[in-house]
Each structure stands twice: as structure tokens, then as C-alpha cells.
Design brief:
With about 280 residues, the protein is of the alpha/beta class. Helix content is about 40%, strand content about 25%. Bound molecules: 3-hydroxy-5-(hydroxymethyl)-2-methylisonicotinaldehyde (PXL).
């Protein structure tokens, strides 16, 4: 297995099993040296908890980047998730442009919305900034809600293939070549991911577990990046990440106290096995 250094930029929600507390263990388990740049520190995530603290780390970013540049540090991949402010999106664009090795892969999860709505701290100005960042990525990993905000398309819960293809093509028009669109369901019992690469569409469908969990977008994106950097194709990485995410949701079923995230840790061994195959 090759040894690669990846940078992931997203928040630390101290409690809540999302963003860095998910990405760091998953990417490390996938055998990657995982460097982090926290976008903000929150006491919990913002979906379902009230009264959370929020420390925006935007102003720390330029000095951190300058230090890394002085040390000649470069990354084989940069993967971004939930960011802290519009100004920060500008800093992150600069990091994507300047901190990668020659063949660096840049993966952007727009991490700003779900179930038809923006997360509470974001607004339309943030969406506009995110559109530019997404256009500069190599691979975009949005859910349908994020795809709608990024393209201006109407959010629908029931749709057909032509709606999804139109969404993906509009995402590609932002400037990104490869899109992995999550949560695409054409049948009430099933869901899946659409993979758009080199102008071609693929679809990987799997069983839908009725009660989804919070934080599965972060689990999915982290496992996708982990598999991709282990030399899996985009399709195979998208499939492995989907199968792993389902296992995490299954692990969490029936535990009403665990509403805030998915129990991803017990399934890490299975993720590694799928990557090794
Ligand atoms: O899982 C996405 C996410 C990440 N970070 C924070 C969040 C959310 C979703 O609500 O609130 C802080």
C-alpha cells in the first residue's frame, strides 16, 4: 500500500460524530497520513443540538499556510468539508491552488445543506462562494440538496433520471470534471450514488435503511477519499464508501439515544477489508 499525505479541512465538532472526528479516524484507518486544518471548533454539530459554541478559525488560516509553505509541506490530496465563513472559502481556494503536489487530487464536499435546507449558519452568499470553490475541485461529492443550491435547480424528493442528469451536468458546468452525487433514490426501498466521470454516467444502487443518520455525508466522503487514495477507481471508491456507510447506519439502528451520528468505528475493519480486496 502506498503511503500518502492528505490534508483535510473541516470543523471540529467536539461531540456529534461528524466532520474531523469522522474524517481523521477513517482516513488514518485507510493508511493515509492525515493532516488537518480545523475550520472552526464547535461544542457539538449544529443539527439538532441547541446552544452550541462556535469558534471560527478563519483568521488562523493564513499563518498556518505560511508556516507550511516555509517548511515546504505539500499534500498528495486535499479534501474539504464544512467550512467556517465566506472569507475562509477564499483562503481554502488558495490552499487548493498552492499546497498540492503536482498530481494532487482535490476533493470538495460542499457540506452546507441537507433535506432541502441549508445548515443553520449558512446563507445564499455562502452558497455563491462555495460555487467557486466547487468549480476548482477535481471531484465534487455533494448530496442532492447541495447540488440544488449550487445549481439553482428546484429541490425535489421524487424525481427521475433526467432531473438527476440535468443536476449533475449543471454541477459540471461550474468547472468540475467528476461528480459523485449521493442519496439518489429512484425506488422507495433503494438509494444510491451517481458517478459522473469523463462525460459518462454510472449508478450504484443499494438498500435504503428507513431511518438515515446524521453525519453520514461525512462518513461517505471520508471513506470515498480513503478508498480513492488507495488507488481504487472513482466508481469502486464510490461503491465501497456506499457499502461502508450502510454498515454504519445498520450499526446505529435501534439506539434512540444515538440520534446525532452514526456508529462508524465498529465497521472500520470492514472498510479496510473492502479497500484491500
Ligand atoms: O455533517 C455535516 C456537519 C459538519 N459540521 C457541522 C455541522 C454539520 C451538519 O449539520 O453542523 C458543525
Amino acid at each position: 500500500m502506498s503511503y500518502k499525505k492528505i490534508l483535510t479541512i473541516q470543523d471540529i465538532s467536539c461531540v456529534g460524530q461528524c466532520s474531523l472526528t469522522v474524517a481523521l479516524p477513517i482516513l488514518s484507518a485507510c493508511g493515509l497520513e492525515t493532516c488537518i486544518l480545523p475550520s472552526a471548533v464547535l461544542s457539538t454539530h449544529t443539527a439538532g443540538f441547541s446552544g452550541f459554541t462556535f469558534r471560527d478559525l478563519t483568521d488562523d488560516m493564513p499563518a498556518i499556510q505560511a508556516h507550511w509553505q516555509k517548511e515546504n509541506i505539500k499534500f498528495e490530496a486535499i479534501y474539504t468539508g464544512y467550512l467556517g465563513s465566506i472569507k475562509q472559502v477564499g483562503y481554502v481556494r488558495n490552499i487548493l491552488k498552492t499546497m498540492g503536489t503536482d498530481n494532487c487530487v482535490r476533493i470538495v464536499d460542499p457540506a452546507m445543506a441537507d433535506n432541502g435546507q441549508l445548515y443553520s449558519i449558512f446563507n445564499q452568499d455562502y452558497v455563491e462562494a462555495m460555487k467557486i470553490l466547487c468549480g476548482e475541485a477535481d471531484i465534487l461529492v455533494p448530496n442532492i440538496t447541495e447540488a440544488c443550491f449550487l445549481t439553482g435547480e428546484e429541490y425535489k424528493e421524487i424525481y427521475d433520471e433526467s432531473y438527476i442528469k440535468c443536476l449533475v451536468q449543471k454541477l459540471a458546468a461550474l468547472g468540475v470534471k467528476t461528480v459523485v452525487l449521493t442519496g439518489v433514490s429512484y425506488d422507495p426501498q433503494k438509494t444510491g450514488v451517481v458517478i459522473f466521470e469523463n462525460g459518462n454516467f454510472d449508478y450504484y444502487e443499494h438498500n435504503k435503511i428507513s431511518n438515515g443518520c446524521h453525519g453520514t455525508g461525512d462518513i461517505y466522503a471520508s471513506a470515498f477519499v480513503g478508498a480513492l487514495l488507495n488507488d481504487k477507481s472513482v466508481y469502486d471508491a464510490a461503491k465501497i464508501a456506499a457499502d461502508y456507510t450502510v454498515k454504519c447506519i445498520v450499526n446505529t439502528q435501534g439506539d434512540a439515544d444515538h440520534w446525532y451520528g452514526a456508529k462508524f468505528e465498529p465497521a472500520l475493519r470492514e472498510l479496510i477489508d473492502m479497500i484491500k480486496q
